[in-house]
Design a protein that fits this description.
mainly alpha
Length: 121
């Protein structure tokens, strides 16, 4: 495999991760179940300022990211006092969350590999 083939493979994997990530993130943000939000997106777990900011358009994407990373890595969300978030999320929401996390981590891995490849040239 030549250097240009490796570069194209890494660049293509980043584009693919980005193409997968954006619709998933938008879909999870728009179609978050109301029962899930009522249970976890409230005062003891989030401050009043966070509730205001994350209820509107730009901030609600951050809310989705918090829930996704909390579902994939529960230790990250324990600081907020949320326990057993996986048990209360619907199956489709959990699958999309895992796919979104996989897309982010594989995109970052290919970005690191591309940077290492560029430094060796």
């Amino acid at each position: 495999m030549s250097d240009s083939d490796l570069f194209l493979l890494l660049f293509g994997s980043q584009i693919l991760c980005f193409i997968i990530l954006l619709p998933l993130w938008l879909g999870l943000t728009v179609f978050t179940p109301k029962s899930f939000l009522d249970r976890f997106f409230r005062e003891p777990y989030f401050s009043p300022g966070e509730l205001v900011v994350m209820s509107q358009s730009p901030g609600r994407h951050m809310r989705t990211a918090i829930f996704v990373w909390g579902m994939v890595f529960p230790s990250l969300i324990r600081k907020r006092g949320i326990r057993e978030i996986r048990n209360h999320a619907p199956l489709l929401f959990r699958l999309c969350a895992y796919l979104m996390a996989l897309s982010i981590t594989s995109g970052m891995a290919s970005l690191i590999a591309m940077a290492i490849f560029a430094l060796t040239l």
